[in-house]
Amino acid sequence: MTLDYSKTLKNMSGFTEAALRFKETNNYCEYPPNLHPKSRYMKFWAEERRRSIYGLDLGYDKIPGYFYFYLNYCPIELVKETIETEGGGMVQAERVSSFPHVWDGDYHYFNYLDEAEKAGKHAVVLKTRGRGFLQPYSEIIKTPYGNTTIGEIKPGDEIIGSDGKFYNVVEKYEKGEQDVYEVEFNDGRKVRCGKEHLWLIYDKTQRKKRNLVYSTEYMMNKGLFYKTGQGQKSYKFYVQDSDVIEYGYKELPTPAYTLGALLGDGSLLTGSIKIASSDKEILERIQNEVGSEYSLIYDDTTTNNYRIITKKEFIQKNGYIRVNQLKTDIIKLGINVSCKFKFIPDIYKYSSVEQRMNLVRGLLDTDGYISETGGIEFVGVNKKLCDDLMDVLRSLGISCRIGEDNRTGQLHKYPSGAVGIRSLTYRIYIRTNKPVFSLSRKLNRIKNIKRFERSPIISITKLSYTENSACLYVDSPDHTYLTTDYVVTHNSFKGGSMLNRNYFLIPRSKSYAFAEEKEYLISDGVLNKAWDMMNFIDTNTAWMKRRQFKNTDMHKRASYEKNIGGVKTESGYLSEIIGVSFKNNPQKAHPYSSQVVTPDGIKTWQEIEVGSKLYGRDGNIINVIETHEFGVQDVYEITFNDGRKVKCSDAHEWEIWRWFVKNGKAYLEPRKYETTELIRFLEMKSLRCNSLKVKIGEAVDFSHIEVPIDPYTLGLMLGDGSLGKSNDSRTDITMKHADINQLVEFIPYKIRNENWGGDIRNTIFIKDCRKILKELNLFDKRSGDKFIPDLYKFNTIKVRLDIVNGLLDTDGSVTTDFGVIEYCSKSKQLAEDFVWIVRSLGIGATIKEKTFKGTTYYRCYIYCKHDEIRLFNLIRKKDKLKVKKKNRYALNKREFITIEKIEKVGKESIKCVTVDSKDTMYIIEDFIPTFNSRGKRGKLILWEESGKFPSLLQGWQIARSSVEQGNKVFGLMVSFGTGGTEGASYEGLIELFDNPMGYNIFPVTNIWSEYGKGKECGFFVPEYLNREGHYDKDGNSDTLEAKKEEIKNRELVKMHTSDKNSYSRYIAEKPFTPEEATLRISGNIFPELDLKERLAYIETHDEAKNLGQIGMLKRDDDGLPKWKGDPTLQPCSFPVNAKDNGEGAIVIWEHPSKEGIPHGLYIAGMDSYDFDESTTTSLGSIFIYKRLYTMESWYETIVAEYTGRAKSAEEFYENARRLLEYYNAVCLYENQNPGFKTYMEKVGSLHLLKPQPGILKNIIKDTRVDRTYGVHMTINVKNYIEILIRDWLTEEYSPGKRNLNKIYSIPLLKELIAYNKDGNYDRIIGFGLCLLHNAENYRVHLDKVNDQIYEDFFERTLFV
Description:
nine-stranded antiparallel β-sheet, 29% helix, eight-stranded mixed β-sheet, single chain, alpha+beta
C-alpha cells in the first residue's frame, strides 16, 4: 500500500452531520425517544450503528466505521488559541473539548487500519507526539486451479474468460504504481482496478448498446446514472455476467450432495455425523450416495436427527473401534466445526459443473426456500458459508446477491408457534430457472425465471492508496477475463474511540489496551480518554450500557445482575474493555507441579516445551507452539464435584457452562471466565451449586502397545480372579457358568467350567500366566491390592475399553433409579485406575468411599448415556441398561463436571503455553479441558506507548494467538508509538515498523526516509501533516509550508538551547521521518552526542589523531608476517570518498609483544565479502581486539583494524590471514559468503577461524546458524550485536571513563554516529563480531570456573 498524501479531501462535512447536529442542538436524534423497533427513533440509531461499524460511503468519498464513530461520537481535547504574546511568534492557548476535525492525516490513519483489518493483518503506527490501488497486484483473479492475484500471474498462465472457458495470458504489461479504483455492482460485488482499465459494457443510453469498450475513468466522467423518459433515475452501465465455469471433475472424499446437506443441516462436530432432517427424499439420496456400507439410524435423543454410521459399527457394538470413513473425511476437510464456522472446501468449489450443482442442491434442499412467486432464497447465520455458496453459484452462471437481517435480538414467532430471539442471519437471493433443488416439493415450484445476464455498476470510488499494477492481454475472443467474485490527533483519543466503538456496538466483544505500566493507560492515557468518551456516549445516545459487575479504572463490562426465580444471573450486552499492564498483570498459566496427560504419558507442566504434544478437548493430538515463563505467582486449586482437581493462576480462563433464563426457558450456554471471577460466583449465596460447569472432553487415544494378556480377560481377572492361585498355564475366575459361557466369544483362550466344593470356578488357560503376572507385578495381589498396569492404561481406546468391559462384567451393576453404572472394589488403586480410564474415554466418573462392617469399599459411579451399552459385554447387564430411559441427571453428569470450590494454595513458578488447536483448548491434569493459556479472543488490542515496551516483540507474538487462529485473523492489533517518548525503548517498535510482514502487520511503502524510501514499513504520521494553521477547511495539509515553518523552529531551538539533549528531544517530538521519531533523546541506539564529542576530540588533537600506524603486513623469508609501515597508504574513509582507491590499509594502535603471544589475548571479528568487483561501496572489515584479564577486571580495547576492498577477494583474505597470524588471533566472521572459509581451508589455516558461538542458541532462539564456522547474520543476530556494541560503548573501564573513549578509529566513530538499520556499516559488523566473540569466550570461561568450583566442592576434605 502506498499512501497518497496528495489526495484532496472535499466536502468532508458530510461525514460529520451527526456531530454537527449535536453541536447545534445538543441532541443527536431529532425524533423523541421511542423504543419500538420500527420507530423513527430506533431506526435512526440502527443506521448510526451501521455507519459506525461498516463506514459511510457518500459516493465521492467514503470513510471506515472506526473513523465515523471517532468523528461523531468521541469528543476530544483540542487546542484553541486565545492570546498572542508580545512580539508575536508564540501564542497562548487553552484546551477545549470538541469533536475532531476531518484531517487528512486521520483520514489516512483510519483507512490504513481499515485496510489492515480487511487484509487479516495488524497495524503499527508511528506518530508525532501530541498530534492528534489497469488492476492492482493484490486483486484476485480466477484460474482453473483456484484464485490467484494479478501480481502472481505471468505470461503462459491459464485464466478464465467471460465465457467460462480457459485461456492463456499472452502478455503482462507492468504499469508501476497507479491509483486504485473500486467498482461496485448492485449485487454487492466489488472489483479494484486502475482508471485505464477497460470494460466490455452494455450502455443503456446508446443505440448500439452491446460490447462497448469503456475505461473506468470514462465511466466516472460520464456519470453512472441517467433519467428515463418518466424522469426516474436508472443505471447506465452494465457488465456481462460470466457463463458457467467448466472446472474439471474431482475425486471428492464425500459425495457432493451429501456434503451440501451436511453443511446445511448436519452436525459435524459431534461423535457421529448427524443430519437433522425427516424428509424421506433427502435421507434416501444421502443413503444412495454413501452406499450400503453406511446406515442412517434415528437418534431418539433429539428431534428429526439421524446418525450416519457404518453397518459394522451398528451391528457390532461390543467394544470394537469405530471406523467411520465419512467422519474421517469430514475431519480431513477441516469442517468438523460448529454451524457458525462451516465452509465449502476448495476442492468442491473448483469441481465439475455437476458436482457443484449437487453441492448446491444439498445446501438448498436443507436450508433453501422458494416463495410463491418463485424467488429462491438461502438463509444462514454463517457469513463465510454464504460467501462460499455465492462463489459456487456465480461459477455456475447463477445470479445472486446477499442481504443481512438487521432484526438481530428481536422477538420472532416461528411457524411452529414457538417464540425466540432472532440471531444475525444472512439471506441469499437467487435468480435462476436451473434445477438447484432435488427435493421434488421445492423443485416443482421453480418458476421459469430468466436469470440476470448483466449487472449494473452502481459506484466507482478512488481509493486512498496506490499500488503496483499491471495490464493483462488474454487470448480469449473478447480479450476479457474474470476477477474477484466472477466479475467481467493524539493516539490515545483515537484508541479510546476504537475501544468504545466495539464496547457499545458489538455484543460480547473484548477490546484490550496493553501497556508496560498501568500509569500509561490511566494517567492521561488511552483508558482515561476511553472512560470520558464512555460517559459522554452513555449520556447522549441510545447505546447506554450498565456496568454492575466490572467497573474499575482498568476493566469495564457491559452487564448487570438479574434475578430470575431467586437465581442471580449476569445479563446485558457483555462487551468489555480491559486494560492490561504487562508489569503487574496476572498471567494465564499453570504451576510447574501440575500434571498433564500427553501421548507420551503423564508429564509435569514444567516439562512441557515448544514441540510437546498435548491432547485437545476433541481428543486429537495438538502441538505446543509457544511457552512463556512468568516466575513465582499465586496458585489456586479448583475442586470439581467428581473429585478432580486442577491448579492454575488467578487469571487463568475457563469455558464455563451456566444456566440462563430467557423468555421463561432455561438453557445452558458457555461463557469465558477467569479464576477470580469464578471465586466471586461461588461466593454468591443464591448461586445454585451446579451453575459453574465445565464440559468433559472427548476420548483420547494412545499409541498401540502389545499386551501380554488380552485386556478383556485381564479385566475379568482383576474383577473376579484369584491372581495368587494362577500357575504357569491357568488362572481361575469366580463367575457363574451361564455368564462366562456368554462371554466365550470375547475371551481368546480355552475355558473350562468347574465346581469344587460348592465354589463356582471357571478356568482360563493362559500360557506362562504366572510369569506374566509377576512381570506385571500382579501375581499374588489380593483384592485390596489390585491395580491396572500402565501398559494397559496408556494404550489404545480399544484396549482401555476392553479392560473396562471386563471389570464391569464382573463387579459392575446398573442402578435401579437413575441408570447410573456402579463399579465396586476393595482396592483404592484399582478404583482410581478404573475411573482414570473411564475419564480417558470421555465419560464422567467419580469415586466414593464407604466402610461396611469394618471393610472399606471404593464405589465408582459412571454417568453415561442411557444407550451406552458398549461398556458391557454381559447381556443381562447390557439389557438392563438398554431399558433405562434417557435421564437428564446422568446425562448432565456425563457431559459436565461442576466446580465446587476454589482456594489459594500458595505460590509457585508458573508457565503458559500456546497450542495449535482450533478451539484453543487442551487437556490438563485429570482430563480436564481448559483454554490455551494465551488463547483469549479479542476483537481489538491496542498497544499504548509501544516505545516503552522492553518486551514488545515477545508480547506481540504472544498476543497474536488472541486474535489469530492458523491463517485466520478475527481481531485487530494496533501498536502505537510516538516520537520523543521519555524513557523509550524503541528496539521492538523499530523492528515492528521496519519488518511488518514478519509480524503479520499491514505494510505501506516508505515515502518518508532518506535511506529506506520504497521499502515496506508501518504507518507513519510526520510532523508536517495536519500542522495547526497549515490545512484548509476540508482538512488538507499544506505540507510544504508546514515543513518550512518547522525547519525555522528547529534552527531557533538549535541556536538558543544550551542543553545537549534538548535539540535531539525536539527533533524526536516533531519528526519528519520515522528515524527521527524513534531517536532516543540522546540520538540513535548508540550514544550519538558522546560519540560526536569523541570524534571532535580526535580530529582536533593530533596526538590522538596520529596515534595509529598505517601500513601492511608482508611475509619475511621464514613466511611469517612482518609489519611494514607506509604513511602513503590511505585507510578507507566513511563514507567512502570518491578519491579513495578503496583498497584500504591496516591501522595498528598497539603491536603484539615480541616475546610470544598467549593464545586468547587477542581475538578478531570480520565482515567479509566474496566478489572481486562490486558496484556498491561494501567493504571487508576486520578488527583485532585485546582482552587482558587483570586481578580485578578485564581490560579490553581495539588494537588494529583493516577495512577495504582489495583488488581481489583472495588478496583481502590473505591480508586478513596475516593480521590474524601477527596477533595469534582466532577470528569470528560473518559466514553468509563462503569464500573466506574456503580460502582458509585451502591454505591450511582453519585453526584461525572461530566455530559458531553457542551463546546465540541461548540468547536468540530462532537464529539459524547452520555453518560450522562463523556467524550467519540474521536480523536477530544483528540486533544482538547492536546491543553488545551499545553496552560496551557506555561501560566504564575506570571512574568517569567509558570504553568509547578508547576508540581512535575516525571511520568507526562516524559509522556509529550515522548508523541506521537500512545502511551498510561494515566496520560496525566487524567490531560487533569482536564483541560477540568476546561474549562467547567469557561464557566458556564462566562455565569452566563453575565446573571447577563444583568439582572442588565435592573433592574438599570435610574433617581433618
